[in-house]
Amino acid sequence: MLNKDEKLKLASYVLVSGYRERVLTILNEKGYMTPKYIAKHCNVRINHISKTLKELKTNGLIFCINEEARKGRLYHITPSGYEVLKLIPKLKEME
């Protein structure tokens, strides 16, 4: 479980990239998704989605349930990712 400072730091990290925010939001709304479908729903090229997924995964905001798969990897938001996502509207109000 993240403490308040860690959540704020990660929320700020997500906010500085529209891609990160969109990917996290779509995973929260749709559940498990492949990079191809994330790209389609976010209207972003797959190479940008792949980089964004790696960044979010490295920070513990999403996870891949079938890491061994070469194609069709499924990603899902983590509890920490959900907590961070809930903070974003509050941070946007402060801008």
Gist?
The protein is mainly alpha-helical. It is 64% helix and 6% strand. The protein has one domain (4-93): Orthogonal Bundle (Arc Repressor Mutant, subunit A), CATH 1.10.10.10.
Gyration radius from CA atoms, angstroms: 13 Å
The CATH homology group name: Winged helix-like DNA-binding domain superfamily/Winged helix DNA-binding domain
Low-confidence stretches: none
Count of DSSP E strands?
2
Q: What is the number of helical segments per DSSP (H or I, 4+ residues)?
A: 5
**Biggest sheet, open or closed, and with what strands and sense?**
2 strands, antiparallel
Query: What is the total domain count?
Result: 1
User: Which architecture per CATH?
Assistant: Orthogonal Bundle
Write out the strand line-up for the largest beta sheet, numbering strands in chain order.
1-2
Shape: globular
N-to-C span? 27 Å
Structural class: mainly alpha
Q: What's the CATH topology label?
A: Arc Repressor Mutant, subunit A
Strand share of the residues? Answer: 5-15%
- Following the backbone from N to C, one meets helices and strands in this order, namely HHHHEEH
Secondary-structure topology with pairs:
Elements (H helix, E strand, L loop, with lengths): L3 H12 L2 H13 L4 H8 L3 H13 L3 E3 L10 E3 L1 H15 L2
